[in-house]
Amino acid sequence: MEAAEHAGERNGKAERAYGLQAEPAIEAEGSHGGTGGAEGNGATEDRAPTIAYPRTRLQIELSVRRLISFHYFEFAPDFKFEGEKHDFWEFVYVDKGELEVFADTEGYLLRQGDVIFHKPGEFHGVWANGVRSPNVIIVSFECPSPAIAHFNNRILSLNDRQKELLAQLIRSGFAAFLPPYDDPLDHTLLRKPDAPFGAEQSIKLYLELLLIDLYQAGCEPAREQRLSSAVTIRSEADLASRMAAYLEAHVEGQVRLELICRHFHMSKTHALALFKKCMGLSIMRYYRQLKIERAKAIIREQMHTFTEIAAMLHYPTVHNFSRHFRHETGMSPSEYARTVQARR
């Protein structure tokens, strides 16, 4: 009883402090000879005052909308990824060792703790340097926030706090999605049926926290100070070599310059300049030479007419084929065929 009385006293004080009163009991009709209870007595109820709580919409500076890929690689010393181009953001972080990276026309050398950001539309690829086997984290994502432009052309070195945020991101990814995490051609994220509560949301939050922390840390030097002329030369030579191999594989087809640029995610100006620099010829001149060399090989087999050869190599007419053949070799197809017979 005493505890109840104290509780009653405390409740009464609280009600008075907030301007509240206990709601009076409504007597049964006719009690004490009355005729109408509270309404009949003309009494009014005291109600709690309505408090208007202001609601603040929080500013979202960097928001990750979707996750595209989540990879952890342990590359062999001779690993090479030819390159790609896409419409979303990607970062590449070197967890161990060293990694050579190219982005559009430039090459860079990344060391342990470095991260490079690739903006949408940037052609990029990676190589192991042939000496140390690197461990690499690659995460790609959609971020529509204007502030993400801060990471254009950036190579950054993570501090301990940022490394811990990245580690938490990776742990959450391992908890949320099924392996494999090391297939460079498979970006499908398969959910674990027994994933912990909030695992995917944790990925988003840790990624956003990492981006915010990097942004708040200030602007480090842009990529220009990490340029590697050796990597640039290697990337250009490798790309030109792959373009030449593509032309050779389609020598009996009909390849246009626009098709080559689209296949290698390059602008026309970039493709022409890079190929001429590395190969000494324009792309289409090189392709014509490949066709003529293929034509000479077919002529030596003596199994097809010149009209058939022209059709095999996708020349519009045999006359067009003959004109190109003479331009490249200094003789007509029939003159070349006679020299082949004379040597036998």
TrEMBL record:
Q: Which residues cross the membrane?
A: none
Q: Where is the composition biased (Gly residues)?
A: 31-40
In terms of Gene3D superfamilies, this protein maps to: Homeodomain-like, Jelly Rolls
Q: Which region ranges are annotated with the description Disordered?
A: 25-49
- What PROSITE patterns does UniProt report for this protein, alphabetically? HTH_ARAC_FAMILY_2 (PS01124)
Domain spans labelled HTH araC/xylS-type: 241-339
Question: Which UniProt keywords are given for this protein, alphabetically ordered?
Answer: DNA-binding, Transcription, Transcription regulation
The family database entries (InterPro entries) matched by this protein are listed as: Cupin_2 (IPR013096), Homeodomain-like_sf (IPR009057), HTH-like (IPR037923), HTH_AraC (IPR018060), RmlC-like_jellyroll (IPR014710)
Entry-linked PANTHER family = ARAC-FAMILY TRANSCRIPTIONAL REGULATOR, HTH-TYPE TRANSCRIPTIONAL REGULATOR EXSA
Q: What is this protein called?
A: AraC family transcriptional regulator
